[in-house]
Specification:
Layout (H helix, E strand, L loop, with lengths): L2 H34 L9 H10 L11 H20 L15 H21 L3 H32 L4 H10 L6 H17 L27 H26 L10 H28 L8 H22 L2
Helix pairs in contact: 1-3, 1-8, 1-9, 2-8, 3-4, 3-8, 4-5, 5-6, 5-7, 5-10, 7-8, 7-10, 8-9
Amino acid sequence: MLPTVSGAIAQITELVLGVLLAPLLTSWVNMCRAWMQNRSAPPLLTPYRVLAKLFQKEPVLAHNASPLFRITPYILFGCMCLATAIVPSLGTNLPFNAAADAIALVGLFALARVFMSLAAMDVGTAFGSLGARREMMVGFLAEPALLIVLFTASLISHTTSLSTTVEKLAGMELVIYPSLAFAGVAFTMVSLAENARIPVDNPATHLELTMIHDAMMLEYSGRLLALAEWAASLKLFVYSCIGIALFVPFGISDGGNWTGLLLAVPVLVAKLAVGGFLLALIETMSAKMRVFRAPEFLGAAFLLAVLAMLIHLLLEN
């Protein structure tokens, strides 16, 4: 089989696997969180049944909803699928992995956020506009911190290409780098905020005044709501894969052979299971903070990311 053909097949396999595993990861986090809180855990396949029901229903739209409101779920899902293809979760030497770098990846997150915020304000409801303003505040503070984290890893490999960075990090000796330690803490804080998790947001809340992400989706229903929910699960999956690629890159194949890619699948599933358990543990041990404390939380993440970059420039060069 030609290298380009085999690479394309491997890339499609990685993308399909990410799209299918994303709802399962969200369900696993919810299940672990329920166990830790001594509650009855929902079945692991619940998100798939919910998505199947929503896709069978026709969306009910407000009479003043514009075309922007209708196409936003498709844009969200498309952006998250592209991000899933860019992040080297199974292999590094794949066609889409080299098509974009870390800056383009953050740009995809920003594009999805802008469309979601505009759609939330499009209908003119109070809670949608409130959630959109809060979402833009979180994004305004979280994206610079995420960029600095990615730049810290890029300084080690001397490139912003995620594939090259992961290859460089995976090939290094097992040494604790202080810069990566600080960057890992900053990335965890940013990931919690970007995925609407405790302590910044509570994905299980039904109180509109405290919601951020869910407040923007109150007007969606049917298949549009299903796409938006699926995109949210994909975003959590992508952030998990970014953390795996940067901080625990062992097990990721170079993409040159099918054996390495096949072996990388169970390794990825195991890493996601451990990461989901740790996320549930963090949420269980934390309390949701007030919305006005979110800038302080993300400001601390940005300072840690800058400190990681400075440590690398001053001590590790």
